Amino acid sequence: MITPREQRIVDLFEAGLSQKAIAERMGLAESYVRGRVAYLCSNLGPDVRHALAMRQGSQARLDRIEQARMQG
Fold first, then answer.
1. Out of 1.10.150, 1.10.10, 1.25.40, 3.40.50, which CATH number does the structure's domain 4-71 have?
2. pLDDT recorded at residue 28
3. What is the DSSP string of the chain?
4. Is the separation of the CB atoms in 12 and 22 below 8 Å?
5. 37, 19 in Cβ contact below 8 A?
6. Which sequence spans correspond to the domains of the chain?
7. What are phi and psi of 36, to 5 degrees?
8. All residues at 6 or more sequence positions from 63 whose CB lies less than 8 Å from its CB, including other chains
9. Crossing angle of helices 46-71/4-14, nearest 10°?
């Protein structure tokens, strides 16, 4: 079972928000959101864990592309 706050993080993550955007929207530290996502990935069932992991990997790639674009 997950808390209402964790559920909100999952919902926003699945809606496509980055961990940074989730943290800003919810008034939380980005490190807290990262920790919750990692916790949820390790403790939820395989379907949810897979969906979060895939989204997390995609977001990490998008973040790197965006950073490179801003630097170049």
1. 1.10.10
2. 97
3. ---HHHHHHHHHHHTT--HHHHHHHHT--HHHHHHHHHHHHHHS-HHHHHHHHHHHHHHHHHHHHHHHHHH-
4. yes
5. yes
6. 4-71
7. -65, -40
8. 18
9. 60
Half-sphere CA count of 63, side-chain side, radius 13 A: 12
pLDDT at 46: 61
pTM over 0.85: no
pLDDT in tens, 29-38: 999 999 998 8
Tokens of 41: 């990935």
Q: Which amino acid is at 63?
A: D
